[in-house]
Write a structure and sequence with these properties.
Length: 305
């Protein structure tokens, strides 16, 4: 089974973070997972030296306000059925969130982002970007909130797209995608995008580029089919697609044309603590995707049975 026991939803009370809560509620209900809703009150360290008493009162007030707001966010009909926990802390947003992930053995984080509507800036500054670099667990980013406010409740996941780079971690990450799709009752599509920007790696001396291109596509199709055949449960149908072009563009295109509800990607990494993320396909998809994106660290894929 998918290792989804504790879900963390950080709240900054923006509309994107409220939308993220709907996905946290949905997955917690479908996987019988514990749901932690957290808010970090930024410490006013710059004011502490000059006005320690006033700063303490301000932080205490914000702490109590955040706790009351979180209690009002979750509809009573869901709160009664789910294992919910509220955590409000004062301090560095990023450090406190990473501390919660470790202390509470969080297995999935769901975060709201402002997306390109806000010129690509992440919610709470660059916290989401830093979390994507450092967290050892999958992170589901939810962005592009519509103009109207989003009602908090459960959402439906009917179609899931897993985009694989066919790296060594693909098998275990595909198993994660399969279990997530099965758990939500969604149809799973698995795709690989061939990027011809790397065509020079084929070497010199080819007399017919089109022949080599066709052979390469066939090779990738066979590899993708073998991967899916190896991991696919007997009672589950999985669609496979091999596409050509720039990976992030084709991933977004297929997600739109197939009306996908969720994109799943691998996060490649040079190391757990500082993932090589900026400028990657995953980073571009996360920033502009009109649907939620689940980013799976290699470390998770490698440990998934």
């Amino acid at each position: 089974m998918i290792p989804l026991k504790t879900i963390l939803v950080p709240m900054d009370f923006s509309e994107p973070s409220k939308k993220a809560l709907t996905y946290g509620l949905t997955l917690a209900a479908q996987f019988n997972a514990k749901l932690i809703i957290s808010h970090i009150v930024p410490e006013s360290s710059a004011l502490t030296y000059a006005f320690p008493t006033e700063t303490f009162e301000i932080e205490k007030e914000q702490y109590e306000k955040a706790r009351r707001e979180i209690e009002k966010l979750t509809p009573p009909e869901y709160a009664a059925k789910l294992h919910l926990q509220t955590i409000v802390k004062i301090g560095s947003v990023e450090e406190e969130l990473l501390g919660i992930v470790k202390d509470e053995a969080v297995s999935l984080i769901v975060m709201g982002t402002h997306g390109r509507r806000y010129l690509g800036r992440w919610f709470i500054g660059s916290v989401t970007e830093h979390m994507l670099r450092k967290v050892p667990v999958p992170l589901l980013t939810v962005s592009h909130i519509e103009a109207e406010k989003h009602a908090i409740g459960l959402v439906s996941l009917k179609r899931v797209l897993y985009a694989t780079d066919l790296s060594d971690s693909s098998s275990s990450s595909l198993r994660y995608a399969i279990e997530l799709a099965r758990g939500t009752g969604a149809q799973l599509t698995v795709t690989h995008v061939v990027d011809y920007a790397d065509a020079f790696l084929w070497g010199a001396g080819f007399t017919n580029i089109e022949d080599e291109r066709a052979k390469w596509i066939q090779e990738m199709r066979k590899k993708l089919e073998a991967l899916v055949t190896q991991e696919k449960p007997p009672d589950m149908g999985i669609e496979t697609l091999v596409l050509e072009g720039k990976p992030f563009e084709r991933i977004l295109e297929i997600a739109q044309t197939r009306d996908m509800d969720l994109i799943i990607l691998n996060l490649q990494s040079k190391g757990l603590l500082e993932r090589a993320f900026l400028g990657s396909t995953a980073e571009r998809v996360v920033r502009v995707a009109p649907i939620p994106v689940l980013s799976i660290p290699v470390a998770v894929g490698s440990s998934f049975p």
